[in-house]
Design a protein that fits this description.
Strand content: over 45%
Strand order of the largest sheet: 2-3-4
Largest sheet: 3 strands, antiparallel
Helix content: under 10%
Structural class: mainly beta
Number of strands: 5
Shape: globular
Low-confidence stretches: none
Mean pLDDT: 81
Oligomer: single chain
Length: 55
């Protein structure tokens, strides 16, 4: 796995999908794009939620 981040930890945010990409919205409303193509694992810690159930 060349040029990849092994893990990203997301805590106390809301996960959303925008234009086919993951976006995390934090407590202040700031949106952060998650480049899923370059990450091996996304760890969702307590306090992370999704606006809709996963399929």
């Amino acid at each position: 796995m060349k040029e990849r981040v092994s893990m990203v930890f997301i805590q106390k945010g809301q996960i959303d999908v925008k234009d086919g990409a993951f976006v995390v919205i934090d407590e202040t409303g700031t949106r952060t794009h998650i480049p899923v193509g370059s990450i091996a694992c996304i760890m969702l810690e307590p306090g992370t939620r999704s606006p809709r159930p996963w399929d």
